[in-house]
């Protein structure tokens, strides 16, 4: 079950469960599309993997399976992971 993290790890932009600009890597690191494309150049700074659009959980299932409220922020800043 995806956690649906509430923010971009890079710029701290709010990414509610219905956000169409939320991007995730295979480990569910979460970034806004702008940071994923323009700051991180399509490469996760944590694992080096690529990004995919985060699926949107249907509103009817959010009550039973709520999004995470745990914000994650890279305090050291965001740069692409070296290959």
Overview of this structure, please?
This protein has 83 residues and is low in regular secondary structure. The protein has one domain (1-68): Herpes Virus-1 (2-Layer Sandwich), CATH 3.30.40. 13% of the residues lie in helices and 10% in strands. The protein is built from 2 helices and 3 strands, in the order ββαβα. It has helices spanning 33-39, 59-62, and strands at 22-24, 30-32, 52-53. The protein has a 3-stranded antiparallel beta sheet with strand order 2-1-3. A hairpin with a 5-residue loop joins β1 (22-24) and β2. The longest helix is centred in the middle third of the chain and has 7 residues, at 33-39. It is elongated, with a radius of gyration of 12 Å. The model has no long low-confidence stretch (mean pLDDT 94).
Give structural attributes:
single chain; 83 residues; little secondary structure; Herpes Virus-1; three-stranded antiparallel sheet; 2 helices; 13% helix; elongated
Short description:
This protein is mostly loops and 83 residues long. It has a single domain, classed as Herpes Virus-1. The protein contains two helices and three strands.
How is the secondary structure organized here?
Blueprint: E1 22-24, E2 30-32, H1 33-39, E3 52-53, H2 59-62
Antiparallel strand pairs: 1-2, 1-3
How far from one another are the termini?
29 Å
Total individual domains: 1
Query: Strand order within the widest sheet?
Result: 2-1-3
Q: What structural class should be given to the helix and strand makeup? A: little secondary structure
Mean pLDDT across all residues, rounded?
A: 94
CATH class: Alpha Beta
Spatial extent as radius of gyration: 12 Å
Categorize the overall geometry. Answer: elongated
User: Helical region count?
Assistant: 2
